[in-house]
Amino acid sequence: MAGTTNAFEMAQRQFDHVAELLKLDPQVREILRWPLREFSFRIPVKMDDGTIRMFQGFRVQHNDARGPNKGGIRFHPAETIDTVRALATWMTWKCAVVDIPLGGGKGGVIVDPATLSTGEKERLVRGWVDIMVRNVGPRQDVPAPDVGTTGQMMGWMMDEYSKLKGEYTPGFITGKPLGGGGSEGRTEATGFGVIYTVREAMKHLKLDPKKCSAAIQGFGNVAQYAAIGFIEILGGKVVCVSCWDRIDKTSYTFYKADGIDPRYLMSITDQYGTIDKEKAKAAGYKIEDGGEWIKKDVDVLIPAALEGQINADTAPLIRPSVKLIAEGANGPTTPEADTIIQSRGIFQVPDFLCNAGGVTVSYFEAVQNDMNFYWTKEEVHDKLDTKMTQAFGAVLDMSLKEKVNMRDAAYMVAIARVVKAMELRGWI
Question: Which keywords annotate this record (predicted)?
Fold first, then answer.
């Protein structure tokens, strides 16, 4: 996790700011500032050497006024309850801003998945389901993959849940593999969703994407497909990506002035997002310090790693050429950095709008599970494009109407929808 930034305090500060703008009733504000339910538990796992190891797990359900809670499960050695609270809160706003009938949830386990064997990972995720089975499900709370978890792990979790319930229940979890209840288009959904919002922002800013370049932080799933989309959908150039090296325990930026080839880099990246430095060097990439991505002379910055990466220390390093920041990660920009960015007139696509493509296609996956009828990849991409474009338009309209920045406008749209649902259900 990033430095000393407390993600939940940041999420609450962002909410409090917009609550003031909206003049929200203090009682309503208190409901929305905190999750409705939190679970903290220990998962016993039999390791390959026969020993029993205990893992700390979490699940936070922020608000389900608009529908079942929805959100991923992260496996990270520095996971905390406050990070999970923040991400669950942001999921509520994310689902609301793209207008899908779900609430916000998030889960986590304190573990470095790279240290576990395949069998140990399977036993750990099945153990997570064994403990949470009464409090999750298609009409309660629908998990999904996130940092450190995979589609295969979702498949194991769905199998465990189905066994415990005594019926095939694919809609319990999303992000499953194709052939196991998964949806076409889910793998690239978050990254492509980022690019659909970048495209709409460029239209607003009157930028020609074919003449624009981007620097991307990260090289996990979101960053990979954002890079592919920026090049293949928009026709632009990506000059760098960065990644965490699990061997060296540090991050690196992979830079190529004439543009990177994300598909090649994916071919030399392990399952945890670590790029092979020697093979990259041989292909002409310059290997730089992990923080160099933010200093590039580009038009677009796409932070697509962990939270708090653009902060009071790093925001001043952003070059004058940058016109657009598209937040592929959750909470990548601190409030202090927001102030700096806004003073410079840089247009931002806020995280819970920008990266909502993943949860949108997760919703599509659950719909297909319910119907037991599945769409083609083209249908999924088209529906995602429509949803993201409509959501961007609603936020931009609010921004222009209320004369506020895009983050505040996105919160205004999302909070108003959640409050309306709470009113309709008689909660307030």
Answer: NAD, Nucleotide-binding, Oxidoreductase
> Is 399 annotated as contributing to ligand binding?
no
Residue 392 corresponds to which tokens in the numbers above?
């961007």
For the chain, the structural domain boundaries read 36-172, 189-354
CATH H superfamily, domain 36-172: Leucine Dehydrogenase, chain A, domain 1 (3.40.50.10860)
Most distant CA pair in the chain, distance:
63
Whether residue 190 is annotated as binding a ligand: the answer is yes
- Tokens at residue 252, please? 């690196």
Options 106, 121, 256, 323, the catalytic residue:
106
CA distance 335 to 312: 9
Q: 140, 99, 141: which is closest to 418 by C-alpha?
A: 99
Q: Which residues pair with 300 in a beta bridge?
A: 214, 324
d(CA 215, CA 35): 35
311 labeled part of a ligand binding site: no
**What's residue 7's pLDDT?**
87
What is the C-alpha separation between 80 and 1, in angstroms, rounded?
9
Q: Would the annotation count 94 as a binding residue?
A: yes
Class at the top of the CATH hierarchy for domain 189-354: alpha beta
Tell me the pTM.
0.92
Query: Distance between CA atoms of 142 and 362, rounded to whole angstroms?
Result: 9
- pLDDT averages per 10-residue partition of the chain, 428 residues: 70 93 95 98 98 98 98 95 94 97 98 96 98 97 92 97 98 95 95 98 98 96 96 98 89 97 96 89 97 98 92 97 96 93 97 95 97 97 98 98 96 97 97
Task: Identify the pLDDT of residue 330.
Answer: 84
Residue 176: active-site member: no
Instruction: Please state, in angstroms and rounded to a whole number, the distance separating the CA atoms of residues 379 and 215.
Output: 30
